[in-house]
Each structure stands twice: as C-alpha cells, then as structure tokens.
Amino acid sequence: MRKNIAVIKGDGIGPEIVSQAILVLNVLAFKYHFNFEYTEVDMGACAIDKYGTPLPDNTLTVCKNADAILFGAIGDPKYDLDPHAKIRPEQGLLKLRKSLNLFANIRPTTIYPSLVNLSPLKNNLLEGVDFVIFRELTSGIYFGHKEVLENGLAAQDVCYYHQSEIERILHLAFKEAQNRNKKLCLVDKANVLETSRLWRKTAQALQTQYSDVILSFLFVDNAAMQLILNPKQFDVIVTENMFGDILSDEASVMSGSLGMAPSASISNTIALFEPIHGSYPQAAGKNIANPMATILSAAMMLDYFGLKDAALNIRNAIMQCLNEGITTQDLNSQNFVTTSQITQEIIKRL
Ligand code: IPM
Ligand code: MG
Predict the structure, then answer these.
(1) What is the CATH number of the domain that holds 248?
(2) Residue 21 near residue 70 (C-beta atoms within 8 A)
(3) What is the CA(245)–ligand 1 centre distance, in A?
C-alpha cells in the first residue's frame, strides 16, 4: 500500500498538531507495512506572508495529484480583526474546496465516557449519542454571487443550489445511513427558502432508491434546539453549507472538547482530512495544543484508504489514553501532558 499525502500544516498550532499526526502515521506505516510519502505545501496566512496569496498554484497542483490531503488549520487574528482586508487566509481553504470539488464535509460526533463531565450537556443526555453530520461544502451562500452595492451601504450573498449538487451529497448521506442506524434527517429552512424546498424535493425523490432508510426533515432553528435537547435522536444529518457550518460547531463541543473533533471533506476522487478546530494562535508554538482531533482525522484518512485496522488502532489508543486520564491541558487543567507527550502516549498504545 503506497499513498501520496499532501500535507498542509497552515497557521497557528497547525504545524505542531500535523507533525504529531505524521509521527503516528509513520508508526502505523511501519507496523502494517504501508508506504506513505508526504509532500508539504503552504496555505493560509503563512502563504500570504510568503507568496502574497493564501493558496499558491503549487499547493493546488500538489493537492490535485495527491491521494489525500492532511490539513492542520488556517487563520490569523490580524485578518479576523480587519474587515477591510482584501486577501484573507480562509479564501485559500474555500478555493481549495471548490477546486478539488470537496463537496461533502463529514463530521462525526463521538462521546468519550471519560470526558462526559466536560460536556456542556448533562450526562443523561449524552448516553447513546452517536451521529454524523454531512455538510454540503462547495455551494450555497458560501459560493453564490457576492456583491457590495450602493457605495458600500448594502451587500448581498446569493444562496444558489443546483439539483445535481444536492443529489450527490444526498446519495452519500443515504448510503451512510444504510451502514448505520438507517435514519437520515435533512435540516433545512423549507418554510422560508426556495433552495431548501429544492433540497426537500430532491431528498424525497431519492428516497425511493433507499427504501430501508427513514427520511425525516427538521427546520434548522428547531434542529439547533433538538441537538442540545435530545441529541441521541440523530443518526445521519445532512444539510446545506452554512447550516452545516453552524450545527457542526454546536455538535462538536458535545463530546467535551473541540480538541477531539475530526473531519473529512471528500470529492469523488480525493479527500482532505482536518480537525474541526481552528488555528488557536494563542497556543501556537507552546506545545500545549491537543493533537487528538488531527490524529483522529488521520484515522479517518486511513479509513478512506480502506485501512480499517490501522484506523481502529488509533481510535483505541486514544480511548485508552483518555480512560487512563492522560490528556492535554484543554481536557484537564490540573493534570496534563504536552502535545508531544500525548502523541508518545498514543504511540505506546498502538
Ligand atoms: C469550517 C470553517 C470554515 C468554514 C472557515 C474557516 C472558512 O469554519 O471549516 O467549518 O466556514 O467553512
Ligand atoms: Mg466552521
């Protein structure tokens, strides 16, 4: 098994956490006889500093030719605080998603028994919670026509969806539901938005092909509430770009820390794996960040390569660390280990 992996470390804590994930991957490559080749490329604020653009052509080319992309985080406070900035690190990520057609963003929510006390939700609500969000990633309001009007006094962002863009992610979500508990919930705002009504119609039409899956619908405002009132009702959630952005952040803290949440963004030919959290600039270079979300994203990459045993190996090792109380500062501010130490603890348990 030989794979070319494009590596984008990015900004803030990105370089530290991605380096740790690569250490873990290398141990597994040795154990299972895989051959992983890494090509490191720049994206984000660091690329703006070096090349004047958040996504240099070379980065895009290397990513296009890779089997998968492992990505840390991008973003820098100097851009967040400046609404006038013409070039922003996030543009790099959005362009990469669009250029590679990474149309489905997959964000699982896993509850770790040893972390339930850190969750903002009460323990009894967390029992049996296990759902995954499928967020459409390359269309909708993120990519529709944008315009500043009336000399800057007005602005608009158009939410556009083509049926084909809805269908391709619905197929993935229906298939995922078939492999899980056979429940698919479409989150939309069909009482107000035309695009949402198109999503509903499209989902209803596809359901005949997946008759073993129970399809339900929720308005996004209600879904935001249901996620904290009764999260165990969900199995697979599918939704458009912006609703998915918001709901997946809400869901990600349920497990106790944003530092535990991995994600995959996939097209028909390539996939990108990244932690849900951002670049956490306050922690950059301090060796205190939690690398688990990135290491769990690497596990999703192994699953994508079909290397299920190796992926499970990572998840079990992380579960063991947590059960033994070995964690980084975000999970236990009294008794913690560093970024590099937790990685070594994970590696010992592989
Ligand atoms: C995410 C992030 C991005 C998004 C930002 C950084 C553009 O919030 O991956 O969820 O909004 O999609
Ligand atoms: Mg987001």
Answers:
(1) 3.40.718.10
(2) yes
(3) 7
